[in-house]
Amino acid sequence: MAYLIGVDIGTQGTKAVLINPAGKVLAHSYRGYDVETPKPSWAQQWPEPWEEATYATIKEVVEKSNVGAENIKGVAISSLYGGSGIPVDKDMKPLAPCLIWMDRRAEAEVKWVEENIDLDELFEVTGNSVNSYFGFTKILWMKNNLDIWDKIQYFLPPAPYLVYKLTGEVAVDYSSAGNIGGVFNLKERTWSKEMIEKLGIPLGFFPPRLVECTEIVGGITKEAAIKTGLKVDTPVICGGVDAPVATLGAGAFSEGNHVAMTGTSMCWGFITNKPNLSPKLVSMPHTIDSKEIIYTFGGAATAGAVVRWFRDVFGAQEMAAEESLGINAYTLLELKAKDVPAGSEGLLVLPYFMGERSPIWDSNARGTILGLSLFHNKAHLYKAFMEGVAYSLRHNMEMVAETDAVLDRETILVGGGSKSTIWPQIYADVTGRPVKIIKNDVEAPLGDALLAGLATGVIKDPGVITTWLDFEDTIEPNLENTKKYDQYYEQYKQVYLNLKENMMALNQIGKE
């Protein structure tokens, strides 16, 4: 038998699965870690925790599965949106932490780009606009604020960095390259010498070897073999950015297929062959047929994160019950919220707890709770937080109406949010679209395992993944709730516009 491993390096932890060629998961593993937030709106991670978690999870799935290392034919690695990537020196040693996707410190660099770069040209070349979310603005922040510029050999996104640690080979997959924004030509699928020169970043900082996510980068080294339990020279594949890999793992291949991945953040994306769709969305090459297909997405910076924040701050009672009774704290919160009417009886939450990405692209946006009265309780608040994230999903979906793309009617929902007992129905009701959920969803690692199979020839047709997936009954929208949510949604958009200047002022005062 030929077995495959998929590994996804997430923001809060790394997951790995080992599957057989029929797509059956024989073992899985998880290792968690933290995000460093040394200042408000800063978010960074050193690569060592990723590295340790990658070794540990691979080794654990090998041991749990009782599969001989000689029968493991390939391993693919995907990762979070790595922002700046990891600056490494000529010895490939990290010089600074990776400024990850949620880091918003590069506001001065954004302003500089807006004043010195033709934004229409930037969008025409890269398929993306400018914001402190994008990696190229974070790279400019490092140039302006850290004394490492002259020591840098490369900037490596997280997945390519881990592939290097496993193989000794330096390469960047197309999806990771495209997600940096600003420095990648989306139409030509190469580094943009023109934009890099205008931005004042040396071209040599970006590895010349660009690879498909279905291409073997190299083989496991002797050192990595000891740490992972894999055989020396086991093929390693750079799976790219986690959201398109999770979309692939959900069986989305065709024009208009769209998937919402709800983890710490929410990435809702769709498959298309149309470049440069909208500067309000983010585009990069897809993880299969990277030279032909584009993955375009919009997303909430804090989706699952705001619900977790609510649990941690207001859910002490539920967390204590989880500790003593073994009942999940989220389940207890949902039991109280499930009977709260649509709209939480006049409550509205803007889930902008770390600024916001698409479609408003506002680093100063902040979380807002509007409509509180003495009547409301914890259940109302918890449901309103879930509804706020669903409004954000709808807001991103609306951006597609301004383009030539056409979405399927159904939304596939993956990630932690899909496991909720009430959130999927809220998504369906708010968007007015049916929601499909995968049974026993393992998210991006399954897509990684598929990529490993395609790269090594164990799997011939990516479409086979659709035979691996089993869906729950489709969740249809409650049209009465949708009518009510239509009204709340209009207020959701208007409230942000009304408070935008206040949010900016409060953020500035907070920095003084």
From TrEMBL:
GO terms for molecular function: D-xylulokinase activity. CDD domains: ASKHA_NBD_FGGY_RrXK-like. Keywords: Kinase, Transferase. It comes from the Bacteria. It is an enzyme of class 2 (transferase). SUPFAM superfamilies: Actin-like ATPase domain. Coiled coil: none annotated. Its EC number is 2.7.1.17. Residues 260-455 form the Carbohydrate kinase FGGY C-terminal domain. Belongs to the FGGY kinase family. This is Xylulose kinase. It comes from Clostridium formicaceticum.
